[in-house]
Hints:
It contains twelve helices and four strands, in the order αααααααααβββαβαα. The protein is mainly alpha-helical. Strands 3-2-1-4 form a four-stranded mixed sheet, with helices on both faces. Helix 6 (139-171) packs antiparallel against helix 7. The chain starts with 11 loop residues before the first helix and ends with a helix.
Amino acid sequence: MADPDKTEKATPKRRNEARKKGQVAKSTDVNGAVVLGVGLVGLMFLGPKMVSGVGDAMTAIFGEISNPGAATTAAGLHALEQIALHTMLTTVAPLAGMCVAAALAVNVAQVGFKPSWGAVKPTFGKLNPLTGAKNLFGPRMLFEGGKALTKVSVIGVVVAIALVPQLTNLGASVDTTPDALGKMLASGVFGIAQRAAIAYLLIGIIDLIYQRRKLAKSLRMSKREVKDEGKQQNAPPEVRAQMRRRQIQAARARMMSAIPQADVVVTNPTHFAVALSYDGSHPAPIVVAKGQDLVAKQIRRIAEENNVPIVPDPPLARSLHASVEIGQMIPAELFAAVAQVLAFVYRMAGRRKAAA
């Protein structure tokens, strides 16, 4: 759900921070289309050499195994291995190298050559089975599945349009020689593959535009955030550091003051603590406080002093601490896990009231 206050475009600093976390806009469809196109071009130039190389290799292999006694010896098996290795290096390896180079080049073209270790940093939330099930059966997967079906349908229609006229040519080629028939089939298949690659590339470009707009929307900032960032960048380093410390202290004070109104505190149980509040005014619970180690200890202490329920759930606590900022709603993939915790808290509260 988009924040209505975030109406400004992301600043360069915000975009750089997102990039360090691995948040970049790229389309895997563009990668696949470019690799397919390069593969087709490679086959166009290397195809005759590949056919000739494979034919020579088959001739040599049949020559080796024509003498069963020699083929089963160590020297004969070594000769067969040498033939197979030489064939792969001279036929398949050049084409595979072209495809790998194309894949690397198109990735760099989309996001630039700036490796980000944040994207490969382990995330404990991914180890939560509830999170994995939500990703498999959630709205995002339904959207991706619909997008995949649309792509297959579009490419299938393009291939069908190119294939139907070829059927009449096949019917008229009954008396064609094998060599001519092979060339005709190769030409038809290559033409169909070209059309499919072009359609795939167009789909990839549309997907890339969508991914970039989606990323830009997710990185939007409020006017206050843009103003504060401008003040920090224009101030001397000492002033910026002091402002940062004051902001951290003020944010921590606000965070601690919100804990008594929280509904539950989810803990690790000692290293992490996340306080959640759900009053029905938002579609999902909101994180009102979070911290680790000493801050987590302080959160637990304030929660105990104010009779806020504390529920140990290490996977959920780590996931919430890593993926949700203070003041934000929990993500959709954690709805089920948080709902179970809140249901447990409400049941316990109901039993205490009944007992009283």
